[in-house]
Design goal:
alpha+beta, 10 helices
């Protein structure tokens, strides 16, 4: 089954009388946005092309090509895209299989899992759970449980003073303000800011800003921007400084990070077209 942003029926997956539902997502416009909503079924939102960003009350997750975000059932969230995003939505009823994440997280999707999603998206809504289609769904769930996680999460603090800080940084990721300046701006001591921010997010302010730069960088690079222009937009003195930061945070430089995902998508697409 396929739907587009022209028909965002958020209740449809819960209305289908099957524990696992896969829908192809064809986002026909650049820069679409799904407003805040929730599903009874948990959801895997996978991006085959373009970048999808998912926001909840507690964090932001970025979904570059060949990745996905897992959203537990009942959790309110909203999503938006950068570029012409296409992919799949996998919806899983509670207690269908053990080992699935209990919180939001970014997930790396293998070519096999993507192929299974592609196949299952073509099933009739009331597919035969006891036949070949049901067996394929079982394999799909096994692959989902085994999928590795990606470090593309940006936690959002609950304290309103800290939320003011993160909102400003989200609006201006290139800011060079010091921790002392931020503390004064939001009415806290520097020590209290550092301690409370680490407690609520699990990150120092500096590490949070670097993670913001990784997420923003992935979004901009996927839109076709050069590494040098992205580095300057994020306040780095050189492209090399940005690449070094990205490699330390993610484990690979940004060009290779995106190239590996594009390569996996191209291989998959070629196999489908054969």
């Amino acid at each position: 089954m396929f739907f587009t942003t022209d028909f965002p029926d958020y209740a449809l997956p819960d209305q289908i009388n099957r524990p696992v539902v896969v829908m192809g997502l064809s986002m026909v416009v650049d820069g679409w946005e799904f407003p805040r909503h929730s599903h009874r079924k948990a959801q895997l939102l996978f991006s085959a092309s373009g970048v999808v960003t998912v926001e909840t009350d507690s964090g932001v997750w970025v979904v570059p090509p060949q990745c996905a975000v897992w959203i537990p059932g009942g959790l309110f969230h909203k999503a938006r895209s950068s570029g012409e995003a296409r992919g799949f939505g996998l919806f899983v009823a509670p207690d269908v299989v053990d080992g699935l994440p209990e919180t939001c997280c970014s997930v790396s999707v293998s070519p096999l899992l993507q192929s299974l999603l592609e196949k299952a998206a073509g099933f009739d809504p009331c597919y035969n759970e006891d036949g070949a289609e049901g067996r394929l769904i079982t394999v799909l769930l096994d692959e989902l449980v085994a999928a590795p996680l990606e470090q593309l999460h940006l936690p959002i603090p609950a304290d309103m003073r800290l939320r003011k800080l993160t909102d400003i940084l989200l609006d201006d990721p290139a800011s060079h303000a010091t921790l002392e300046e931020w503390a004064h701006r939001i009415g806290m001591s520097e020590r209290s800011l550092s301690r409370l921010f680490s407690h609520e997010t699990g990150m120092s302010v500096g590490r949070w800003r670097r993670q913001l730069h990784v997420i923003t960088g992935v979004q901009l690079l996927t839109q076709g921007r050069s590494i040098q222009s992205v580095a300057f937009d994020l306040g780095y003195e050189s492209a090399g400084a940005f690449v070094t930061m990205f490699r330390k945070a993610v484990g690979t430089p940004p060009g290779r990070f995106l190239a590996e995902r594009r390569s996996s998508w191209n291989l998959f697409r070629g196999a489908v077209l054969q």
